[in-house]
Amino acid sequence: MTSKDNGFDTEDGESSSGVCSSQGGRFSNQEPPGAVKSGGETMKRSAARVKKFIERYFYQLTDGCGNANCQNEYCASSGKVKDLTPDQAAGLAIRLFREEASLCRGVRGREGEGEPKVPRTEETPQDAGSRRDLPQPQTTATENAANESSASNHHHHEVLNERKLLQVMETCKAENSHLRLIRVLGEVYSSPENLGNSFLKSDSPPAQPLEPSQLANMTKEDVRQLECEKEKDEDCSEGSAGAAGGCHHQLESGSDQTAVDLDSVRRAYSQLFTLFGSLIESALVLALITLSNYIEVDLRMGFVLSPRDGSSSRLINKQPCSLETLLNALVIALEIPTLGTNEYLEVALPKLCRAASYLPLSAQARLARVWSRHSAHKLRSLLEALQQLITLRVIIVSRDFSVQNDEAITAPTKLMKIIYYASLLAGDLDSPELREDDSAAAGCSDDLPWGPLPGHKSFKQPHVDDPLAQELKVNVLDCRQPLIPFTDFYNEPLSDVVEMDKDFANYKNHRGGDSADRSSAAAFSFMRYSFVLTPATKTLALYYDNRIRMYTERRISFLQNVVGQPANPYLRLKVRRDHIIDDALVELEMVAMENPKDLKKQLVVEFEGEQGIDEGGVSKEFFQLIVEEIFNPDFSMFTYQQDSRTVWFNTSSFESNAQFTLIGIVLGLAIYNNIILDVHFPMVVYKKLMGKKGMYHDLEDFNPTLYNSLKALLEYEGDDMEDTFMQTFRVGYTDVFGSSLTHELKPNGDKIFVNQQNKREFVDLYADFLLNTSIEKQFNAFKKGFQMVTDESPLHLLFRPEEVEQLVCGSKKFDLRELEEATEYDGGYTVDSAVVKHFWQIAHALPADSQRKLLQFATGSDRVPVGGLSKLKLIIAKNGPDSDRLPTAHTCFNVLLLPEYDSKDKLYDRLLKAINYSKGFGML
């Protein structure tokens, strides 16, 4: 059989994509003697000639033919070739060779092998003959008939479907040779047109009718799936058109349908890899490399038919390939079940990722929709393969090389983003109507005693939605439960090696990594792919952003001082311990009145009557004390939820909205200054801060008892609901003073009973009242204060609500062994010092409360940073010889000073006294 691909013919047993047949298989002993040697020599000669022609095309594109009057649009001498990078020129050269484009005479090959540069824009018969003068294998009568039937076409298209692939496999088994299968797979999987037009639904075999026993055992989900498949088939049959005879050219770009029969693909793969898996690996790998190169060239050079306007770049003697066809090819290729194995992981998968990284935004969105609808079960294994690919690359890459510049890492990350959004679409999505804008909170400044804030008409968060999320019209806040847990997307090895200072610099270039056109895109930034980074690494990005803003404000203050306008370069708060709330709120109120931008300066706290310079430790203590006071139930701004052990806004608080705004400022300042707080909000507070209203499912964390009651009401199926529950649309609640109050969820709610028809409405209205309506004024004021500090921060871009909770409260995992492993020693102490060994023995034996006191004594906070205690660099330093002095600490620098006590008992006694009586004393 003669197959034409890449502009040259191949012999039976050789793949047109450069795929060599495996000679170590079980059928190799059936080949005639000398066949392998002869085929190998033929392939070498053919490859050399192919290489020569591609080189000539390359130099034609880069150097030209030397004819000033050349009209060949693919010759540099004509002036029609745009500036090409070497990679682009090489890719286009491959394409031109494949399309048998005009080759100017005189174009040189390798250095010294060029012909005289004679003007010519048409290929001579000798050149054409040379291109076709490749070995012509013997063909059977059946194959000749098949070739003659397609002789009118300039290009031979080999396509597959399940039936045809099974027939080829049966033939190979009958002939006891797998070479025919290798050739077919090479022809199909090396060509975007061939693969993209394979396994179409119009070509799939009819489904077998179900037996009565199968129908009896079907679940509701099975029935729905069958109905969906029927609808998809009808949609395809109605829109079938085009040269391929399929419906994919008629599909809308926003559709989640695909012309590929993925069930048929999976059945075919199952049998293929069961029978011939090890025999076809090399063939498929090489074919996929060729496929990836063609797709990349098509996308980069614009050789694609747009699905929207039907336009395309001009091709030579060829109809443009549709973007839908390329997507089909990628979908089929990425369905290969062995992509995560070594053979594919090392070469083929990186190439496919690189090709997919050039997909335009609309195609990425289309792929995400198709995967979410048809390949949900495949996403996890594909994600695992990409994670493995990135991890392996991180391990072997040089530490001197930036991962942002390594396409073997960035390309899989870009494909992972498509899986990320497909996981969101395939998960449990809430209505976008639950998303809040900032208009309500923005208006709260008018209610403050000082009126509208100068220079801040509104504190809307910067628009940081991902372009792919906008194209899909989905937001991570909408997803209550993704198909794949968010934590599965974290790549810890990558997060550990990312240099966030460089990554942040790349992020500040707003085009960083967003464009599919590499020539116009700036450096890649993982901040725009934050789902792959651990919260600890993302915290560093936020830290750099905050510090740069602090330095900017400090520089502006210095410049103001130079021009005679005195300004404080820091946000200074001077407070008394006994009146810390009043003093802090008054100070912050003055700052908010005069210039809210001063809140973005570095915080410096001074306790009146106490000596010390705030290098971070005093601020930690300040926040700890103010949080203890603010969230004390006696302060009446927040109430304590006994059931969930969380605090909530007091709906009956006598405090003004300004007080809640200032509390929001305190929370924002803690994040801005990288300080962890001991606060216990339910998760719904962080969701609301990020822009999503509270809903029924949030009650599980807010009030578990109430949630279970409402869940039982929703699950009740009896017809006697009104008599059983006796619940109307009037609800009762108790305020902080113990008074019983009522609220009607809708007009005349006390006369409307909850029944089977309106129970969902009741639950939604009740949850909305508890989580949104009843605290609207208090929360909007609180959110306003929070945004006054974080309005320009990439907080929304980097963190999900669950991660914001970690950012505010720290990690819940308290493991002193992590702290021990990360601790450093100074002043003469080492890990083998007797005092050090005694210290850790005592520390591990302490009860949990005392361990937290020890952490607070040494660092100024008992909270665990994001990422665990291993992220906290504690230093234990020698503080002189044995004495009766107590241990001391420099909390600003996390330094614990220990005298060289002569016994373990003495160390134990002095250490416990220090940690139990240390508040306001002994810490600098």
Automatic annotation (TrEMBL):
- Where are the active-site residues found? C892
Q: What is its EC number?
A: 2.3.2.26
Q: For the region Disordered, what residue ranges are annotated?
A: 1-45, 107-156, 230-250
Domain HECT, chain residue ranges per copy: 595-924
Q: Which domain of life is it from?
A: Eukaryota
| Localization, UniProt | Cytoplasm; Nucleus
Catalysis: reaction(s): S-ubiquitinyl-[E2 ubiquitin-conjugating enzyme]-L-cysteine + [acceptor protein]-L-lysine = [E2 ubiquitin-conjugating enzyme]-L-cysteine + N(6)-ubiquitinyl-[acceptor protein]-L-lysine
UniProt biased composition (Basic and acidic residues): 107-134
Q: Which GO terms describe its biological process?
A: animal organ development; nuclear receptor-mediated steroid hormone signaling pathway; positive regulation of macromolecule metabolic process; protein polyubiquitination; regulation of circadian rhythm; regulation of primary metabolic process; regulation of signal transduction; rhythmic process
State the Gene3D superfamilies in the record: Hect, E3 ligase catalytic domain, Hect, E3 ligase catalytic domains, Ubiquitin-protein ligase E3A, N-terminal zinc-binding domain (AZUL)
Q: Residue ranges under compositional bias (Low complexity)?
A: 139-152
Cell cycle is among the record's keywords: no
Any one Gene Ontology molecular-function term assigned to this protein's record: ubiquitin protein ligase activity
A matching Pfam family? AZUL
What is its EC class?
transferase
| A cellular component annotation (GO) from this entry | cytoplasm
Q: Enumerate the UniProt keywords alphabetically.
A: Biological rhythms, Cytoplasm, Metal-binding, Nucleus, Phosphoprotein, Proteasome, Transferase, Ubl conjugation pathway, Zinc, Zinc-finger
| Compositionally biased tracts (Polar residues) | 15-31
Name of the protein in question? Ubiquitin-protein ligase E3A
